Amino acid sequence: MFKLEKTSKQSQARTGELQTAHGSIQTPFFMPIATRGAVKTLSSFDIERLGSPILLSNTYHLWLRPGMEVMKRMGGLHAFMDWKGAILTDSGGFQIFSLEGLRKLSESGVTFQSHIDGQKLSMSPEDCIDIQRTIGSDICMVLDVCTKLPATKEQLTEALALTERWAKRSKEQFEKTRATAINPGAQLFGIVQGGTDIDLRKRSLEGLLKIGFDGYAFGGLSVGEPFEDACHVLEAIEPAMLKEKPRYFMGGAKPDEIVAYVKRGIDMFDCVLPTRNARHGSVYRFVHDDVSKPDFFEVLHVTNEKYKDSEERLITDQYSDVDEELSRYTLGYLRHLFTVHEVLGMRLATLVNLRFYLELMKRIRRSIEEGTL
Amino acid sequence: MFKLEKTSKQSQARTGELQTAHGSIQTPFFMPIATRGAVKTLSSFDIERLGSPILLSNTYHLWLRPGMEVMKRMGGLHAFMDWKGAILTDSGGFQIFSLEGLRKLSESGVTFQSHIDGQKLSMSPEDCIDIQRTIGSDICMVLDVCTKLPATKEQLTEALALTERWAKRSKEQFEKTRATAINPGAQLFGIVQGGTDIDLRKRSLEGLLKIGFDGYAFGGLSVGEPFEDACHVLEAIEPAMLKEKPRYFMGGAKPDEIVAYVKRGIDMFDCVLPTRNARHGSVYRFVHDDVSKPDFFEVLHVTNEKYKDSEERLITDQYSDVDEELSRYTLGYLRHLFTVHEVLGMRLATLVNLRFYLELMKRIRRSIEEGTL
C-alpha cells in the first residue's frame, strides 16, 4: 500500500505514495489533529478547503464521547463528521498513560479512570483494535505501553516486552476483525518505543518487524528531550527500517524539525503545534522558499501591541481554497480579535497555520524531487 | 434614501428599499450582530456567504477596543473587517447605561467607568457622532438616555427631554462632520424612548420628527416587558410615524414576534437571539412556509440526549451559499460537538440560525408582496 518514489542522494529523505481506503496520499505528509472528531474551530469542509487528504483522530477520546454505540449507529467517523479523506487514529495509549490517579497495567491491558467522570474503565489491545474498527479508521495504531520517565533500563525493557506481546495480539485481532469491518481496507501500524536508548529502540523495532505491520511509528519522541536526541535515535535505527514501509513520527514537530526528521527518513507527521499555537495567537509564515535552510519560516505573535494597526495581510501568497478568505484580513484585525476574545481569531489563525504546515510538506516533497534536500 | 414599495391591505406591514452608501437593502430586514467587529465565530466572508447585505456593530465597544486611533489608521470598520456591505452602529448608550458602578449623567453627556479596566471615561452626544464617523458607519444612531426602570413619570419625562436635546445636538454634529467624513453618505437615526407609556412615546416621536432624521428607531422595547405591551406601543404611535422613513425595532425579537412587529409597520431588526441561542445549542428551523401563522418555526435543543444518534441534517432546504457546508452535518454530530465543547458546534449553529433569520425576512417580504401578511 506504500510505493516508494524517490530517495534523496544527500539524505535519507524520500517521497512516495501511501494508498488508503480513502484516497492516495503523497509522502511525506502532515496530519491535522481532530482529537474529538473535529479540528478545533474547523469543519471537515474547511479541511477540504485546506487541501489535506488525511486527518488524525483519537481512539481514547472518541471511545468516551460520543462512545462506540453512537459511533456504530452513525456509520463510523467518516460518516459522523462527513469526511471523505483518510483517517488515522492514535490508539489513545499516550492519553491513558498520562492520566492522573489510579492506572493499573497488567498483561491483559490497562485499567484506569475516565478523565471526564472518574468512571473505572479498562482497555486491552484487542479492545483498542475493536474500537478503531468501529470508528472505521484507515490507519489503526496498536495500543502500546508508554512508560513514565525517568525509568530504569529494566523497567523500560519490561515495558517493551509487554508492548511487543500487545502488538502481536493487536495484529491477530486486526486480522480476525477484517472480514466484518466497515473499512476492511484499513491498515495497522506498530509503534517503536524505547526512549532515547538506541539498543532498546532497535530491539523494539526488530520485535515489530517480526510481527509485520503496514507501517512503523516512533512513539515517545518529541516529548521534551533535546531535538538532537530524536535525530540520533532516527539515524541509529534507520538502517534497520524497511525501505518499503511508511515511517510515522508521532506527535511532532516544529517546522524546521520536520525537515530534519524527513532527512532522517520519516514519511508521516502529526502535531498539535500549528493548531494549539494558533489558539494562542501565534502564526507561522514562510520567509523564503528554501526549506533546507532552517530559517525558512518565522512565527508572529499577533497579540503583540506592535501589530495593532498592521495592515499586512494574514497571507500574501496563494495556494489553497482558503486563500480567498484569509487574504482579506490584516494582522491588525487578527490582533483585535484576540484582544477582544473573539474565537474567529483562533479560527483564522488555525487556518493560516494548517495551511502553512500543509504547504511546508509540499515544499519538502518538491525539494526531495529536485534533489535539494 | 428609503423607498416604500408595497403596503399590506391587512396590516401595517410594508416592503421597501433602503439605500445606503454600501448597497441597497430590501426591507423588512434583519441585521446580524458584530458587536466587536465580528459576528461571534464568523468572518465577514461567512456573512457574505449567508447573504446578509448589512450588519450591526457597537460604538461603545469599538471605541474601547481597538480604539479610534487604530480605527482611523485602519480606514474605518469596513476596511478593518473587510466588509463590503452596509454597517449600522448602535450608539452604545444602552451598554453605557447598563454599566454597574459610577455612572453620572449631565446635560453635556455621560461619565462612566470602562467595563474593561475601570478607566473613567465620558461620552457626549457629539463624541458619539464623531466615533461613528471614524468607524465609517452607514447608519449612525444618536446617543440616548436609557433610564433604569422602574422610574417615575417625572424621571422618564426629564430623561426624554434630555434625549431630545441630545438628539438635536447629534444632528448638528452629524451635519457639521459630513464634509470631512470617510463615509459622507451615512445616515442618522433618532431613537424613540418612553417605555410602555403611550403619551411619552408620542411626545418622544414628535420631538424627533421636528429635528428630522433619516430613520426612526424604537429603543427600550423587548427588554423584558410583555410582548403585547410592545405591540400596543407600536400600534398606538404608528399613525404618527412618517410613511416615507424606515422604522427600526432595536434589539428584538423572536421569529414570531418579528412577524408581529412587521405587521405593525417595522422595517428593520437586530437581535442577539439567533447567535446567542446558537452558542447554547439551540437551532431554529422552519416547520412550514406560512409565516403568518405563529407556529411556522421550531427550536431544537441539540444538547438533548435524544439527538445523540440523530442522522437528520442540520438543514434540508437550499437557499444560501453556506448550504453546501451545513447540509453535510447531522444533528447527532452537532450534539457531539457541544458535548465535547468544540467551538465548531457554536459556529455551525450560528450559521444555521442566522441563515434562518435571513430567510425568515425573505419569506416575510414575499408574504407582504403576495398580500398574505
Descriptors for this entry?
homodimer; 373 residues; 16 strands; eight-stranded parallel sheet; three-stranded antiparallel sheet; 39% helix
Describe what this molecule looks like in 3D.
2 copies of one chain form a homodimer. By secondary structure, chain A is of the alpha/beta class. Chain A has helices spanning 44-50, 59-64, 68-73, 77-80, 93-98, 125-135, 153-176, 198-211, 227-237, 255-263, 273-279, 323-326, 331-339, 343-369, and strands spanning 2-7, 14-20, 23-27, 29-31, 54-58, 86-90, 103-105, 110-113, 120-123, 139-141, 187-192, 215-218, 247-249, 268-270, 282-286, 297-301. The first copy, chain A, folds into 2 domains: 2-271, TIM Barrel; 282-354, no CATH class. The first copy, chain A, is built from 14 helices and 16 strands. Chain A has an 8-stranded parallel sheet. Chain A has a 3-stranded antiparallel sheet with strand order 1-2-3. In chain A, α6 (125-135) packs across α7 (153-176), α7 packs parallel to α8 (198-211) and α13 crosses α14. The first copy, chain A, starts with a strand and ends with a helix. The mean pLDDT of chain A is 95. At the A-B interface, α3, α13 and α14 of A face α3, α13 and α14 of B.
Strand content of chain A: 15-25%
Oligomer: homodimer
Q: What is the name of the CATH superfamily of the largest domain in chain A?
A: Queuine tRNA-ribosyltransferase-like
Proportion in helices of chain A: 25-40%
Shape annotation of chain A: globular
CATH arch. level architecture of the largest domain in chain A: Alpha-Beta Barrel
CATH topology of the largest domain in chain A: TIM Barrel
- Our count of domains of chain A comes out at 2
Computed over alpha carbons, the radius of gyration of chain A is: 20 Å
Question: Could you tell me the mean pLDDT of chain A?
Answer: 95
Order of helices and strands of chain A: EEEEHEHHHEHEEEHEHEHEHEHEHEEHHH
Strand order of the largest sheet of chain A: 4-14-13-12-11-10-6-5
Find the biggest chain interface: A-B, 39 and 39 residues
Low-confidence stretches of chain A: none
Main β-sheet description of chain A: 8 strands, parallel
SSE-based structural type of chain A: alpha/beta
Any idea of the CATH class of the largest domain in chain A? Alpha Beta
How many β-strand stretches of chain A? Answer: 16
Q: What count of helical segments of chain A does DSSP give? A: 14
Distance between the termini of chain A: 25 Å
